[in-house]
Amino acid sequence: MQGLLPPLDAPHHVRKHEWSEFREGVTLGGDRSKGTLVDVGLSQNVLVEQIVEQGKRVTVAMGTNRDLTPACVRKVVPQSSPSEEMGSYWGYKVRYASNLSGVINDSPYKEGYDHIIGTSEHGETIISSELILPSFRHLLIAFGGLAGLEESIEEDPNLNGKGANDVFPCYLNTCPNQGSRTIRTEEALLISLQYFQDPIRRAGMAS
Questions:
Q1: Alpha-carbon span 132 to 128, nearest angstrom
Q2: Nearest Cα to 157, choosing from 106, 98, 113?
Q3: Which string of DSSP letters, residue by residue, matches 86-123?
Q4: Distance of CA 132 to the CA centre of its chain
Q5: Which SUPFAM superfamilies does the record cross-reference, listed alphabetically (predicted)?
Q6: How does pLDDT run across 127-165, given as a tens digit for each residue?
Q7: Largest distance between two CA atoms of the chain
Q8: pLDDT tens string 4-57
Q9: 195 CB contacts (<8 Å, ≥6 apart)?
Q10: Pairing of the two strands 22-27 and 36-39
Q11: pTM for the full model?
């Protein structure tokens, strides 16, 4: 099945023959007297100064020195470092929420989400070029399952009595004139990301 999926070729999927200032890796076992060996997908494993248990995914700052011997000790850095320092997309994180209100309220950011958007076939239809988003630091775009976000709202005890427009200040139909009864979430995700690309870019330029 994996072979049938379209390749992402994302920036953090660095090829074996390419050099990058950061690489994702997995910590290995063995002697930890001088640090931890990490498999970062190169011809040799690299040594990092931190002591990390075996089998952990880590982001390694590789720098510009291409010496892969243990003489060149590197560091494990936060996963956000490549994005912050190079401005590159560097993957995503997954978190579990027991209901929709948990998705919104249990934000990983101290200040929460600046702007929240819900997507549904029952939402407002606005042409992408005419959609104006406020400037933001953290944007949340919510997608429902087969029965839509409406069902998620109905089943959430913390949202009792509320409608979609009460929960989402912006409730949009990003797939108008869909023709079929339903659009799979993974299909709606790709369509919507294309739909939001230009409005998000404009919001960033305005901030």
A1: 9
A2: 98
A3: H-----------SSHHHHHHS-SSTT--SEEEEEEEEE
A4: 23
A5: alpha/beta knot, Nucleic acid-binding proteins
A6: 999 999 999 999 999 999 888 899 999 999 999 989 999
A7: 63
A8: 777 778 888 899 999 999 999 999 998 899 999 999 999 999 999 999 999 999
A9: 128, 174
A10: antiparallel
A11: 0.77
Give the number of residues written for the chain: 207
Q: Which residues contact 6 (CB under 8 A, 6 or more apart)?
A: none
Tell me 133's DSSP state: P
Which residue, chain included where needed, has tokens 């209100």? 101
Compute the distance between CA of residue 171 and CA of residue 119 in angstroms, rounded to an integer. Answer: 6
184: Cβ contacts below 8 Å, ≥ 6 apart: none
- How far apart CA 181 and CA 184 sit, in angstroms, is 10
The domains of the chain, with CATH numbers, are 22-86 (2.40.50.140), 100-205 (3.40.1280.10)
Phi, psi of 42 (to 5 degrees): -105, 180
Give the count of beta carbons closer than 10 Å to the beta carbon of residue 62.
21
**CA 38 centroid distance within chain:** 24
